[in-house]
Amino acid sequence: MDECTIAAIVGRRGSGKSSLMKLMAAGDRRTLAWDWRGEYVGELVTLDDLPQLFTRKAFTAVYRPDRRQKLLAEFDGLGFALTELECSDFTLVVDEVWQITHGYDDSRICQMLRVTRPQRINILFANQRPTGVPGTLLSEANTLDVFHIHNRADLTALSAYLPADALAAVPTLPELSYVHVNLLTREWEPRMLPPFTRAQRRLTHA
């Protein structure tokens, strides 16, 4: 993955978002997943483990919040620690990003965008609805992957980022298919998850 990649993934529940995000992160040598649903495999870590974790050249780590009813506050603590400890050169994976932003542009993950370049942090984030993603996050994304969506409000929101022909393809996308858009060049292409992810979907939410 290129340095300082900010990748957005949107689509209906069960469309393949989590499978794609895991596939994208698998190629990185240092990854930390915010795992509020308990579906990622890796070394479980706490805030106290972060200083030692980031001395290692490679890791696949998972942070699971203790208080699922207070996810916004839990991620605020994690994001603050990653910033203050100047943790660098890693990929942060966040599924259902609405849970930790509630649509606010001043949420912790949006604030972290200011340090992604100097600290070399890649961010992969997904959400069911693009209307639930803060504009700050989408505006900073390098790529946007869109699975099947047919809600009119969501399609209208996507029209600011997708070329017209790409947008027209979104409501008719078959299972596990998606539109990949380079937001820097506006070039796009249809893609499909590899066949092996179909079996993986029985073991995890997507």
Strand order of the largest sheet: 3-4-2-5-6-1-7-8-9
Number of helices: 8
Distance between the termini: 21 Å
The percentage of residues in β strands lies in: 15-25%
The helix content is 25-40%
Largest sheet: 9 strands, mixed
Question: Can you give a write-up of this model?
Answer:
The protein has 206 residues and is α/β, with parallel strands linked by helices. The protein contains eight helices and nine strands. It has helices at residues 17-25, 50-53, 71-84, 108-112, 135-140, 152-158, 164-169, 196-200; strands at residues 6-10, 30-34, 43-45, 59-63, 90-94, 121-127, 143-146, 177-182, 187-192. Helix 4 (108-112) links the parallel strand 5 and strand 6. The longest helix is centred in the middle third of the chain and has 14 residues, at 71-84.
What would a concise description of this structure say?
The protein is an alpha/beta fold and 206 residues long. Helix content is 27%, strand content 22%.
